[in-house]
């Protein structure tokens, strides 16, 4: 059976009702645009949201800016827990705090992905210009007739929107349909490591068993944990581990193997996780993927945002923030080209794609940093130099992490500036070393 929706030539279809899709729906509606959001999953507000596969989110400047633009930041912030820095847990059980920036203003905000999604969907649904359609799975896109075909409850649903946004994630169905028959590039890369979420419960009185207002990291070369705090005093622990090989997810299945892994790498966590074996068994193992693609649009009818066009590894904490920044950039491009949507799509991609490609590389690099560099003497010394110079020259010298997390500077510009600063530091160190060598040589001759 096929159902056709009422004529919707003046409405936009957004495929995907996740974070980016629901935010963009609200942003478009606030500009007077009618929006239909199609989501393959059930409504997460009904308590049937998928669990166990979402990494907790760190909201930073780019995401804050996008939420401010739609007037929601004052409602979102009470849902977050401030993280002022990292607490590094060494194998011997000792800890070390590493602040994110030079002052208390440079912080991240931990937030539950599902809670944020529910808030965005609530506000989108309240807007008279927005209609939400759950359990609608995209089957087909006909670019010639400009039709979308969805499956809903065993029936086919045909939609004919004015234009389409693909906001359906890293495994987007919109992207391959859009690029079919086009000269398109697509690169997909899986990390050999996966992830599993575990829960660290609060104390009986609701207090946190570890420092609440911080991101906790247990860095080990073979595997590592990252912990995000929750408002109820609990922490969401995410274990990153190889999929295969010794001490991997594949080789850690039985209660004995699970306990042996923690005895070897994370003994200080064992007393904090009394339900470790049960928690391990009840949470699935997730995969980590990065993608790049081009183009991001087709004619003036389809455009991609978020993970649908640039999924990245989570190690820089920028996935959501970057997706939200896409929404802001697309809205700005549409505003700049009010009578030429194709030009707006092209301008949007030109402004974003070089920088999201840079973010993919930064996210890969931060994977190495989190698992092994955060305890390195030279890494910590370099960080101290950056923070010191930032305090002395707050407008001139900005650490790379500060530029990525605490500004809206384009990612590529931030990396280029960081590399220029790195050359200055290396030059200064080299000059100091040469001066010291010269002074030593002069003293030897004088003696």
UniProtKB/TrEMBL annotation:
Gene3D superfamilies the record matches:
FAD/NAD(P)-binding domain
Alphabetical list of SUPFAM superfamilies matching this protein: FAD/NAD(P)-binding domain
Query: What sequence ranges are listed for the domain FAD-binding?
Result: 11-360
Provide the transmembrane region boundaries: 424-444
Question: What's in the keyword line of the UniProt record?
Answer: FAD, Flavoprotein, Membrane, Monooxygenase, NADP, Oxidoreductase, Transmembrane, Transmembrane helix
Keyword NADP assigned to the entry: answer is yes
Spell out the protein name for this chain.
NAD(P)/FAD-dependent oxidoreductase
Enumerate the cofactors the protein uses. Answer: FAD
């Amino acid at each position: 059976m096929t159902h056709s929706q009422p004529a919707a030539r003046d409405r936009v279809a957004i495929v995907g009702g996740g974070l980016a899709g629901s935010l963009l729906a609200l942003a478009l509606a606030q500009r007077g645009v009618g929006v239909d959001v199609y989501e393959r999953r059930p409504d997460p507000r009904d308590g049937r949201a998928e669990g166990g596969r979402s990494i907790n989110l760190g909201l930073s400047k780019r995401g804050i800016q996008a939420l401010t633009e739609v007037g929601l930041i004052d409602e979102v912030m009470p849902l977050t827990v401030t993280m002022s820095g990292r607490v590094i847990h060494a194998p011997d059980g000792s800890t070390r705090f590493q602040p994110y920036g030079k002052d208390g203003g440079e912080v991240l905000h931990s937030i539950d992905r599902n809670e944020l999604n529910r808030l965005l969907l609530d506000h989108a649904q309240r807007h008279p210009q927005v209609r939400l359609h759950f359990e609608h799975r995209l089957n087909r896109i006909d670019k010639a007739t400009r039709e979308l075909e969805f499956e809903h409850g065993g029936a086919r649903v045909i939609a004919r929107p004015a234009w389409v946004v693909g906001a359906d994630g890293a495994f987007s169905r919109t992207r391959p349909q859009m690029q079919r028959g086009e000269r398109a590039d697509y690169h997909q890369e899986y990390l050999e490591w996966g992830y599993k979420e575990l829960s660290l419960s609060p104390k009986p009185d609701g207090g946190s068993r570890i420092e609440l207002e911080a991101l906790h990291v247990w860095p080990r070369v073979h595997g590592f944990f990252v912990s995000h705090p929750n408002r109820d005093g609990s922490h969401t622990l995410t274990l990153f581990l190889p999929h295969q090989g010794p001490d991997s997810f594949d080789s850690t299945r039985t209660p004995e193997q699970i306990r042996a892994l923690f005895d070897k790498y994370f003994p200080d966590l064992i007393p904090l996780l009394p339900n470790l074996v049960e928690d391990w068994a009840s949470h699935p193992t997730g995969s980590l993927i990065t993608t790049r693609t081009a183009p991001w649009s087709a004619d003036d009818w389809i455009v991609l945002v978020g993970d649908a066009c640039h999924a990245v590894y989570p190690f820089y904490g920028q996935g959501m923030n970057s997706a939200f920044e896409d929404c802001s950039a697309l809205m700005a491009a549409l505003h700049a080209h009010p009578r030429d949507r194709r030009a707006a799509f092209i301008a949007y991609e030109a402004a974003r794609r070089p920088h999201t490609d840079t973010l993919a590389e930064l996210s890969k690099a931060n994977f190495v940093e989190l698992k092994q560099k955060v305890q390195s003497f030279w890494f910590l010394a370099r960080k101290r130099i950056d923070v010191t110079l930032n305090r002395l020259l707050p407008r001139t010298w900005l650490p790379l992490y500060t530029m990525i997390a605490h500004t809206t500077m384009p990612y590529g510009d931030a990396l280029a500036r960081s590399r220029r600063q790195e050359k200055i530091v290396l030059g200064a160190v080299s000059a100091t070393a040469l001066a010291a060598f010269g002074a030593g040589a002069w003293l030897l001759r004088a003696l």
